[in-house]
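Suppose you are handed a protein chain with no further information: no name, no annotation, nothing but its sequence. What can you learn? This example shows the usual starting point.
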Amino acid sequence: MTPSIKLALHGGPPVRRVPMPLRRAMGPAEEHMVAEVLDHYRRIGQDPGYQGPFEDRYTAAFAAKLGGGFADSVATGTAALYVALAALGLPPGSKVLCSPITDPGTLSAIILNGLVPRLMDSEPGSYNIGAGTFAARLAPDVRAAVVVHATGQAVDMDGVMAVARQHGIRVLEDCSQAHGACWKGRPVGTFGDIAAFSTMNRKAHITGGSGGVVFTRDRDLYHMALAHADRGKPVWQEGFDWRNPAQFLFPALNLHTDEISCAIGLASLERLDETIVRRLAYVAGIAGKLRRHSRACTVRPYSPGDSPFIIPVFVDAGMVSCDKMEFAHAVRAEGIDLNPHYEYVAATWPFLAGHLDDDFATPNAARACADSFVLYVNENYGETEVSDTVAALRKVEAHYTGGDAADGQ
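A reasonable first move is to predict its three-dimensional structure. Written in structure tokens, the prediction is:
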């Protein structure tokens, strides 16, 4: 391959002529578990509901996966964030530090709990915060922090928690993109006071189309999470009557999931380790070949503790004759699935006007997203996808640098 080969963006032949493999996370194991739910409830003459034996099994397995604690399954990842924050019982108007690159649900959960988000910045060249950027945004009235493990890479939770404990700050870990990720061998979600996970269909571990889990090792926080997830019901109290709302503790929504979703979660959870290993193999292949063969494109160092969700690819603007967006569109035209620009920098969203504590622009986060595009990841991507992806990156790089482009092998 030479620089004279025309880019697919300009009408040339693409590197990859077939679609990237679909994930298809709902397989025979999930089908078996759904059938088991239906059979169980058919035998007892009922329709599947919620807070039954399959949720008990699922939440017990989820907590065990994190080394012990308490888990509650809810309807969505945003619901998990909302419930986890509500369980902390922060005074209305309290300021809550929040990671700068995240889903709108993270910020919405803070705001709808009557709290005030105060954005932190990421570390330079990263989508994630660090202990230093955490400490830099402390203020006397900050009561809590939502720390997002973005892209499936763990935040330095030792450093963050040291700062948080020194200042009496409660910590909610948003592990929505990082199921099974670890920091120094310890699972994310086990460092802070409480954690929230999304289990929607694109995550490494799923409960179906949508879903979420709240996790904590604190029994009292767990009880508060249970109540906030189901209309204020103190279900842990002896003698509690489900049919007597006079016993309910406070106004709250019904944010439950259902028995069928929890059964799907059981099957998916059993495959999580294998899913991570297969995704890591793809990331390792991309990273290794880019280190050897690319001058303009880099990915952040990966570790065996990561649980890849997406791969940010940073483009060195000084090396190429186009902007990042044109570069990314050219790679996508070669048949590689990607998002040309990750729009999840919270400081840029107009709907947050009037809700944030101040107008801090999170410059590191903005720069990281401006300089990168994201490759999609799933566990069915293998060696062929590694070779095609790197070949596409090198072909585009060669076009915009005037350099040579080999086949990416």
